[in-house]
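Researcher: Good morning. I'm working through a list of sequences from a screen, and I'd like to move beyond sequence-only analysis. For each chain I'm collecting a predicted structure so we can compare shapes side by side. This is the next one on the list. No need for commentary yet; just the structure.
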Amino acid sequence: MQTLEHPQIHRIDLEEIHGETTMSIPETQLPRVVIIGGGFAGIEIIKKLAGKPVQTVLFDRHNYHTFQPLLYQVATAGLEPDSIAGPLRKLFKETPNFHFRYGLVTEIYPERNAIATSIGELRYDYLIIANGTKTNYFGNQKLAQLVFPIKQLHQALDLRSQLLQNLERALLVKNIDEQQSLMDIVIVGGGPTGVEVAGALGELKLHVLPKDYPELDFRQMDIHLIESGERLLGTMSEKSSKKAYKYLTERFQVHVWLNTRLEDYDGKEVTLSNGRKILSRTVVWAAGVTGNLIDGLPKEVITRGNRIIVNEFNQVKGFANIFAVGDISAIITEETPNGHPQLAPVAMQQGRLLGDNLLRMLDKKPMKPFKYFDKGSMATVGRNRAVVEMPGFQFQGLFAWFVWLFVHLLYIIGFRSKLVVLMNWMWNYFTYDRATRLIVRPFVKEKMEV
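Model: Good morning. Structure tokens for this chain:
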């Protein structure tokens, strides 16, 4: 199988690169691999390159890796934020020829193998784009200012503060409609994130909040889940969708609105496509993501969802030394016309293979094409309830819930984090309590860019 020929390795001269000295990246005769993004894919690549004859430079706008599948538990007071986040420097502190820089990559210059960042410019021999996705507001600037996404750690903390602050305010108001708007919550998007948020909030409503706020009548608190499609968990089987719907509506008293869209929201009142209006000060946005593109790549390599078109080796279309992996990449084939699913297992598998392929390129050996091993998908729907689908079989209920717990615990990075998460889960399970109901930084909504 033919591949694009890799470029002649550029021997880096700090004197000729404007701005490079501000980063204090040591001069080296080794090929320099620059990775944008410390997510699942980026971490797996660094692990593969550790101890090999390359210099690895990682850029990220945060100094930590976040286990995103559990962000909703931080938002609903189930976990501490540091239990699902680990410092990148600590993770690779003993990795030779590795450098982390805390900064934002703003543009790529393929013609001269360089990137512009918030802390200067840097040249690369190989560039790997692994910065994932961002929340998709579908161009609605108004919504971006009013709703609550859950893609980053600070967003989960903002939502947690919003929920608790609203309940504190609900104690003080006399107007019933005003109190209702402070207590009711609307979740937009019936995928795994939306379903898991709804289930977690249902648990809070039934088991935790009535003890904290005995003055409030939580029978009046409504949780609404809005889904534009005909069923929940659209990427999973119809059986799993029906089970998730049953768990949410019967066990957790969530109002599920299918074939319904959010038409408008002014910060106080939600208007749905079916004409219904809901008073709510909290709208959780789980309606989709879009690629977190960086300027500099030609438009013809960008496809649906702002994903970057790559070949079977994750090389960006038309470039030998630029790669894209994880959620932002799309390998377009007959089997995957829209690319692979934007899941952590895909990113991790691509990262591992690309790390190996980079070493093969340097040894002038042919690269191996990516083949996704589908381990299945899953979603939890609150205590003792989950849906799991694996190749050849599927199951729901208590056993699925234990499988979900085990798999997520397995993929959390760091022994301490695994232990902390496990202890929190055990405490929550046996006491029906959430230990992190803290307003550590009162939330004030800031303007956001779409």
